[in-house]
Write a structure and sequence with these properties.
Chain A: GO terms for molecular function: phosphatidylinositol-3,5-bisphosphate phosphatase activity; phosphatidylinositol-3-phosphate phosphatase activity. The complex is a heterodimer of chains A (514) and B (543). Chain A has helices spanning 49-54, 140-153, 163-166, 173-181, 185-192, 226-234, 270-281, 297-304, 329-344, 350-360, 362-383, 397-409, 416-429, 434-437, 451-465, 474-486, 497-503, 505-508, and strands spanning 24-26, 61-68, 76-83, 87-92, 100-104, 108-113, 121-127, 132-137, 199-202, 218-221, 243-247, 254-258, 289-293, 319-323, 386-390. With 514 residues, chain A is an alpha+beta fold. Residues 1-49 of chain A have low confidence and may be disordered. The model of chain B has no long low-confidence stretch (mean pLDDT 92). Classes of the chains: A alpha+beta (514), B alpha+beta (543).
Chain lengths: 514, 543
């Protein structure tokens, strides 16, 4: 049975670069008086939303606020609430401890103002890292002010409003650059042994002209010419043509990824067929290529009506085609909501909990993702075959299963350094839509889905089964999970590399030092 | 009786044995009075050395000219034997069935087991009521040791010496015993030093439909607690069940007659319900074709985790009464030999750090389970696979062990023993070459001379070479009470036990080896040996 991750929600996060961590609670230093201790340390960046954000703050400080205890609703600690441009901060009044609770605006996913009672007006805050916090504010008007401010502050509309542009710990400029260079993907492909006699680097996407959601540098079969690549990209959703994602030096097995082909009911594309053939030929030891469509067959077939679809085995020579039924982002979003509802029940009966866990479908989806990862890893490790993986656009399910397969195959990805390289490679560089999926900016709620959350859960499951195989622990996973949502660092902000470049994130924000 | 009469075929060649995690092996199968042996004669060791008592059920089928016997063991292992020749196969099966269903205790293997290293006397005096009383009298003189049950005259399921309140004399005890089912009068179980409160256990009072009373019983319970205080009676039956019990002559302590005791009804599953829960759970664990949905719903319908949660919750409540409310507690169900013992023993693990050590836990099992008369032989006669008609089997003890495991997961540093220790106890409760878990009470053990003619499991488990397998490297004595979380999210399937033959423990074992290694390194650094110290000094001098 899964041990629930959200039990850790009150865990203290290790502080980063000497700056007080943002969510969770941290003991205050005694000498500070009224202001929460971290504020004075925070330098404000030039691009800062800080000043701009101030406009939305109707009341910077509210007295007589009570923070309800998560376990027993009868217990509460009294204190003051501070609203800054980046955080909501609760400071306990008890003179000795003055415990602080910091909530980053970007972590807030919902604010609910509940009916006023004799004790005050309850304000419920749900965070993206599954923390649920409830305040009782004595004055209804104060509560309303905070509510209105938080609604605006938690839903920024421009990238420039995000925390990472104002987060500015005292750090030298070159040190900042060093952080961004920690994960050099070129070095990572070199580590895998590419380029080599079979695979080469292609600059066809230098200015993001062929595919605006791919990185500029891509690795393709040596035999794939530029016309083949461009032709293939025109036959794939959003131009996401097949590229190398993992190469196994020992047996030349390769994992490639792409989006779905625009095959409709009968369309063909010679260049795309040549592209797949080139991938197959780049593995001289194997006479076939696995093509794994991670969607349920029904979904893939439905896509055909829209002119998309999947590879026809008759048109592509020597491919073995497989469906692996991972559900789409909408199903996953609903599944998480159900799971959170179950976990929020106060002292449920065992059967209610298990029944709810089952009907949420969460573990079923986790298993589907793991199954897909295992299938791909086995194809590479045991059959020395190459695999092309795609879903619809190839940036959600494909990212999940490629990175799980990588973790299973390569011990490097199970180290601290390797895991961050894996995320930078399979998620960030290949255009996983961090902004949309984790709703950094106010946007379409139907784009939001716990895609990377599921990946972290899969990793956690593996860590449970292979306790000695990973250099990092659960806390590390929780920490990264937190920062996927925190927008404190520049890594997980944009939808793709092109956006990051345009924002000039590298210069103006910090890289998360994992 | 001669075992040889039961053995139809004692030896068959070319038998293929398949079992979890090991390569199939072909060899000669021998049936002896107590064991099933298989040897390929490749080395000097037998590949299989299976206690026939451990066999819970067998299934036979034919495959071509040979027969296949599937052996399902009480320790949950499933293996199969492919025997050339159907007739031989049937003979072997018949022999196994006859030998495994032997009912006579004195013919069981512990009476024949004589290993060289172990001594018959060792381990049997590990814990005595006398010793418990000596410890108790350091803190309070309200209690006395009574030999009223000498030769088991008053209560057949109690030991010959029990601790009772000093206000009650032996004559009165006999009266009380007559008013309690099976003569199980209230006895002392645990003294909580912090609050000076106690836990007692008994069986139900025999009030019957007419509300019969017993002056001595009322007087005794009134005297146990101070007049201004309240005590709690935790009845492990529902109110309805307690009322129904009156029809059969049982009953409960009424408010009017026991006015300073507050009765709490906390129904805990027992008997057949529990046994069926175990069967369903093991069935779900063994079905590897399960989709995840079916797995979760099967886990749910087995109700195993629900039973765990109830037992643990009620034990916490009992402990809370003693520790937080400063009240004494009397626990009983109907007979007071099953659910009652789960609660008294778990409450002690929560409250008393001594019970979380290896020797303390052994003493706890001795006094709260073996001497308290838990009918091990009846309850553990079959495990999850048996097709025989259920009689009195119920995994009451296994639920207790599982609760201990749940707590050890939540407090990984507070228990001196590890998971393997608990699994070993589970195995030996169901089938063993040791005499400890034989019989249903001390009287039976006395009659059969168990303590003179068999070896105690504690002798084996406490031998240095064996004990090291049971030590938790993370243990650090924790003198506080431990309050486990009983939220459904916190209770887990005991994979180490229920999936032990399905998923290889290799990676978990590797992790524990690493932890042990790290802890050893750490402690060596903290207390460097003299040679290491001299090296350090030299280093220091050199710098």
């Amino acid at each position: 049975m899964q041990r629930e991750r959200w039990q850790l929600q009150h865990q203290e996060h290790p502080s980063i670069d000497g700056i007080k961590s943002d969510t969770g609670t941290a003991p205050a230093r005694g000498q500070e008086h009224r202001l929460p201790s971290g504020i004075s340390n925070c330098t404000v960046g030039t691009l800062g939303f800080f000043r701009e954000g101030m406009e939305y703050i109707r009341t910077p400080k509210i007295e007589n606020v009570r923070l309800l205890d998560r376990v027993s609703s009868k217990k509460a600690s009294a204190g003051s609430l501070y609203l800054t441009a980046t955080h909501l901060i609760f400071v306990e009044h008890l003179s000795e401890s003055r415990k602080e609770t910091w909530i980053l605006h970007s972590q807030i996913c919902a604010v609910e103002k509940q009916a006023t009672t004799a004790t005050g007006c309850p304000l419920l805050i749900r965070c993206k890292n599954f923390q649920v916090i409830q305040f009782i504010i004595s004055q209804e008007r104060d509560c309303h002010d905070i509510y209105i401010s938080l609604i605006r502050l938690s839903r920024p509309v421009k990238y420039e409003e995000l925390y990472c542009f104002s987060f500015n710990p005292k750090q030298e400029k070159n040190e900042r650059g060093r952080g961004w260079n920690l994960t050099d993907l070129k070095a990572e492909y070199n580590r895998m042994g590419v380029p080599n006699s079979l695979w080469q680097v292609s600059h066809v996407n230098r200015d993001y002209g062929v595919c605006d959601t791919y990185p500029a540098e891509l690795y393709v079969p040596k035999s794939a010419s530029t016309p083949v690549i461009v032709g293939s990209s025109k036959f794939r959703s959003r131009g996401r043509f097949p590229v190398l994602c993992y190469f196994c030096q020992d047996n030349n097995g390769a994992i490639c990824r792409s989006s779905q082909p625009l095959s409709g009911f009968s369309a063909r594309c010679l260049e795309d067929e040549q592209m797949l053939q080139a991938i197959r030929m780049s593995n001289p030891g194997s006479d076939f290529l696995y093509v794994v469509d991670t969607r349920p067959k029904l979904n893939a077939m439905a896509n055909r009506a829209a002119g998309k679809g999947y590879e026809n085995e008759d048109n592509y020579s020597n491919i073995k085609f497989h469906f692996i039924g991972i559900e789409n982002i909408h199903v996953m979003r609903n599944s998480l909501q159900k799971l959170l509802d179950v976990c929020e029940l106060r002292s449920p009966a065992m059967s209610v909990f298990l029944w709810g866990l089952e009907s949420s479908g969460w573990l079923k989806h986790i298993k589907a993702i793991m199954d897909a990862g295992i299938f791909i890893a086995k194809a590479v490790a045991e059959e020395a075959a190459s695999v092309l993986v795609h879903c619809s656009d190839g940036w959600d399910r494909t990212a999940q299963v490629c990175s799980i397969a990588g973790l299973l195959l390569d011990p490097f990805y199970r180290t601290l350094k390797g895991f961050m390289v894996l995320i930078e490679k399979d998620w960030v560089s290949f255009g996983h839509k961090f902004n949309h999926r984790y709703s950094h900016l106010d946007g379409d709620p139907r784009e939001v889905s716990p895609v990377i959350d599921q990946f972290f859960d899969c990793v956690w499951q593996l860590m449970e089964q292979f306790p000695c195989a990973f250099e990092f622990n659960e806390r590390f996973l929780v920490h990264i999970h937190h920062h996927v949502y925190s927008c404190q660092f520049g890594n997980f902000i944009c939808n793709n590399n092109k956006e990051s470049k345009e924002l000039r994130l590298y210069g103006s924000s910090l890289q998360l030092k994992y | 009786m001669e075992f040889s009469e039961l053995i139809e075929t004692s030896k068959v060649d070319h038998v293929l044995l398949s079992r979890p995690f090991l390569q199939p092996v072909k060899g000669t199968l021998c049936v002896t009075s107590h064991h099933l042996l298989l040897s390929s004669r490749a080395g000097d060791k037998e590949e299989l050395w299976l206690l026939i008592r451990n066999i819970d059920g067998i299934e036979k089928r034919s495959a071509g000219s040979s027969g296949i016997i599937t052996i399902k063991c009480k320790d949950l292992c499933v293996m199969s034997l492919e025997i050339p020749g159907m007739e031989e196969c049937l003979n072997i099966a018949k022999s196994i069935e006859a030998l495994s269903s032997l009912e006579s205790t004195s013919h069981m293997y512990p009476f024949f087991y004589r290993p060289k290293q172990l001594n018959l006397l060792e381990g049997w005096d590990l814990f005595t009521p006398e010793e418990q009383f000596t410890k108790l009298s350091v803190h309070t003189d309200n209690w006395r040791l009574s030999y009223v049950n000498k030769e088991f005259a008053v209560c057949t399921t109690y030991p010959d010496a029990v601790i009772v309140h000093k206000c009650i004399d032996d004559a009165a005890i006999k009266m009380v015993a007559g008013f309690r089912q099976g003569g199980r009068f209230p006895v002392f179980s645990y003294y909580h030093k912090k609050t000076k409160m106690i836990i007692m256990r008994s069986s139900q009072p025999l009030t019957g439909a007419n509300g019969k009373r017993c002056k001595e019983d009322e007087h005794f319970l009134a005297a146990v607690i101070q007049p201004d205080k309240k005590g709690y009676i935790i009845d492990t039956r529902s109110i309805q069940a307690a009322h129904q019990a009156k029809v059969k002559g049982g009953g409960f302590e009424s408010k009017t007659n026991y006015h300073n005791w507050k009765r709490l009804h906390r129904p805990i599953a027992r008997g057949r319900v529990l046994q069926e829960s175990l069967i369903k759970l093991v069935d779900a664990c063994n079905d590897q074709s399960n989709s995840i949905d079916r797995w979760l719903s099967k886990l749910e319908t087995s109700k195993w985790l629900t039973h765990l949660k109830t037992v643990l919750t009620t034990a916490c409540m009992a402990a809370q009464c003693v520790d937080r409310e400063g009240a004494s507690v009397l626990i009983h169900g109907s007979e007071g030999r099953d659910t009652t013992l789960q609660l008294t023993s778990l409450a002690q693990i929560i409250l008393d750090p001594d019970c979380r050590t290896i020797s303390g836990f052994q003493a706890l099992i001795e006094r709260e389970w073996l001497q308290a008369g838990h009918p091990f032989q009846l309850r553990c006669a079959s495990s999850a696979y048996s097709h025989a008609k259920l009689k009195q089997e119920a995994p009451v003890f296994l639920i207790f062990l599982d609760c201990c495991w749940q707590m050890s997961c939540q407090f990984p540093c507070s228990f001196q023993f590890n998971e393997q220790f608990l699994i070993t106890l589970f195995e030996h409760a169901y089938a063993s070459c040791f005499g400890t878990f034989l019989c249903n009470n001390e009287k039976e053990r006395f009659t059969l001379n168990v303590k003179e003619q068999t070896i105690s499991i504690w002798a084996r488990m406490n031998s240095p070479s064996e004990r090291k397998h049971y030590v938790n490297p993370l243990y650090e004595r924790n003198n506080f009470t431990i309050w486990p979380s009983v939220a459904p999210q916190s209770l887990q399937l005991w994979q180490g036990l229920f999936l032990r033959w399905i998923r290889t423990p290799e990676h978990q074992n590797e992790a524990w080896e690493q932890i042990k290694h790290i802890v050893e390194l750490g402690s060596r650094k903290a207390n460097p040996s003299s040679t290491e110290l001299s090296v350090l000094k030299e280093d220091y001098a050199a710098n």
